[in-house]
Amino acid sequence: MAFILNTATVASSIRSSKYEVYVAAVPLRAPRGPPQLLMSTVYSLNLFDLQHYMVIISSTSASEAVVYDFQPEDPEDVFTAVTALSGKEIPGVVLSRKLKKLPKRKCWFVGYSESDAVEGRVHGFNERWDTDLRIGVHDCRNYVNELVEYLTGEKLVMENLACN
Questions:
Q1: Structural contact between residues 56 and 144, judged by C-beta atoms closer than 8 angstroms
Q2: For the chain, what percentages of helix, strand and coil (3-state, to nearest 5) are there?
């Protein structure tokens, strides 16, 4: 069962006939303190691919965008982090929220979705998304690949981004 947050408030912000679809990366969230500092440092220095990926949809006629992502229900919980890193399933959640502007770093344009009902398509996709998260098997990368393919037809976008 998928959990969609803020869907009603964000759906109205993406109404037009053409939508730009982006993939963005941000640092993984970690428990507060030294683990969080370490994750931010590793992300900033590009030492490992410890990033969280998400899909951003921006209407060509509106100034706001909407970000969709799949992550652990409580990404800053130590138990959640240990369980996830051990390869076990943890409860996940699909989130959506508004952005005033696109990120300036680590944000890649991947294509267009021309459906007039893109917010309805994303909502339907998210309702069917299995929210049992397992790193490397069913995580944010899989969510991005599948949502981008569903919206644009572009296959395996994460693998293509890794090559660039």
A1: no
A2: 35, 30, 35
Cα separations in angstroms, 14 against 7, 11, 67, 112, 163: 11, 6, 11, 13, 30
CATH of 4-162, one of 3.40.1670, 3.90.1720, 3.30.70, 3.40.50: 3.90.1720
| β-bridge pairing 4-5 and 90-99 | parallel
How many whole angstroms separate alpha carbon 100 and alpha carbon 76? 25
Q: What is the pLDDT of residues 18-49, one digit of tens each?
A: 899 999 998 776 656 665 665 566 556 554 45
Give this prediction's pTM.
Answer: 0.78
**Owner of token pair 């990120």:** 103
pLDDT per residue over 124-134, tens digit each? 999 999 999 99
